[in-house]
C-alpha cells in the first residue's frame, strides 16, 4: 500500500498517539502497530481493536518484527513476567486482520462508500470520487495496470486476493474495487496497511486522515 500526499510525495505519518515497538524500538503512531496483552492465564493475546483491558505491549505491524519479538522472548521482557506465546501467533494476527478488513469492506459496501467492478471503479476515478483504489493481489497485472490510484491521495490497497475481496462484496471474486469518502474509509486503509505488513514482512504507513479528506 502506498501512502502519499496530495502532491504525490511520501511523507511520514505524524498524526495520532504513538507507541514504541518492543522488537524494533521504533516509535510509531498506534495505527502502524499491533497491541497485545497478557491475559489472566499469562498467554499473549492480540488486541486488534485496542480495547482489551491490561497493559498494552506494542509490536510493529510487520511479520519480521513479530517473529523477532517471539523468538527473543521480548513479550516476557515487556510484561516483566513470564508469558506464554500461543502457537501460530503471527498467522493468527494475520487472520484477525483479514477478517477485520473484509468485514469493514462489507459494511462500507452496504453504506455505499465501497464499489466493485472495473467500469464502476474507472468511472469513480474519472469523476474524482474514489479516494482509494483496491485491486486483487492475484489479478492480471495487465488488467490492473489500466487503473491508477487517485491522484489526490495516491492510496492503493493490494494485499487481498480476488477471493477475499469477493467475500467482502458478496461475489465469487473481485479484481477491482474502490473506496469513496465515508466513515469507514480511514479504518479500512489503516487495517489494510497492517495486514500488508503481516503478509509481506514490511510495515507500511497508511494514509493520514488529512490525505483522505472527509473519510
Give an overview of the whole structure.
The chain has 215 residues and is α+β, with helices and mostly antiparallel strands. The protein has two domains: 18-88, Hypothetical Cytosolic Protein, Chain: A (2-Layer Sandwich), CATH 3.30.1230.10; 92-200, Ribosomal protein L30/S12 (60s Ribosomal Protein L30, Chain: A, 2-Layer Sandwich). Helices cover 35% and strands 17% of the residues. 41% of the residues are buried.
Tally the helices: what do you get? Answer: 7
Secondary-structure element string: EEEEEHHHEHEHEHEH
Give the oligomer, counting copies of the same chain as homo and different chains as hetero: single chain
Number of strands: 9
Structural class category: alpha+beta
Could you give the topology of this structure?
Layout (H helix, E strand, L loop, with lengths): L17 E3 L6 E3 L3 E6 L5 E4 L9 E4 L2 H9 L2 H6 L9 H23 L2 E3 L1 H9 L3 E6 L5 H4 L10 E3 L4 H8 L6 E5 L4 H16 L15
Parallel strand pairs: 7-8
Antiparallel strand pairs: 1-2, 3-4, 3-5, 6-9, 7-9
Task: Pick out its properties.
single chain, 215 residues, alpha+beta, Hypothetical Cytosolic Protein, Chain: A, 60s Ribosomal Protein L30, Chain: A, four-stranded mixed β-sheet, three-stranded antiparallel β-sheet, 7 helices, 9 strands, 35% helix, elongated, disordered N terminus
Outline of the structure:
The protein is of the alpha+beta class.
Amino acid at each position: 500500500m502506498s501512502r502519499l500526499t496530495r502532491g504525490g510525495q511520501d511523507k511520514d505519518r505524524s498524526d495520532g498517539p504513538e507507541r514504541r515497538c518492543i522488537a524494533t524500538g521504533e516509535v510509531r503512531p498506534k495505527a502502524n502497530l499491533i497491541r497485545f496483552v497478557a491475559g489472566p492465564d499469562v498467554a499473549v493475546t492480540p488486541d486488534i481493536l485496542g480495547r482489551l483491558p491490561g497493559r498494552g505491549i506494542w509490536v510493529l505491524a510487520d511479520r519480521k518484527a513479530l517473529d523477532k519479538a517471539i523468538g527473543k522472548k521480548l513479550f516476557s521482557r515487556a510484561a516483566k513476567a513470564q508469558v506464554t506465546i500461543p502457537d501460530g501467533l503471527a498467522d493468527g494476527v494475520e487472520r484477525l486482520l483479514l477478517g477485520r478488513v473484509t468485514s469493514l469492506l462489507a459494511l462500507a459496501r452496504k453504506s455505499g462508500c465501497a464499489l466493485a467492478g472495473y467500469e464502476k471503479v474507472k468511472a469513480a476515478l474519472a469523476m474524482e470520487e474514489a479516494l482509494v483504489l483496491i485491486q486483487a493481489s492475484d489479478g492480471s497485472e495487465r488488467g490492473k495496470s489500466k487503473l491508477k490510484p487517485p491522484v489526490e491521495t495516491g492510496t492503493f490497497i493490494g494485499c487481498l486476493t480476488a477471493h477475499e475481496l469477493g467475500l467482502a462484496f458478496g461475489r465469487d471474486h473481485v479484481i477491482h474495487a474502490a473506496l469513496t469518502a465515508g466513515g469507514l474509509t480511514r479504518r479500512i486503509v489503516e487495517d489494510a496497511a497492517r495486514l500488508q505488513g503481516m503478509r509481506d514482512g514490511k510495515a507500511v504507513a497508511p494514509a493520514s486522515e488529512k490525505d483522505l479528506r472527509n473519510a
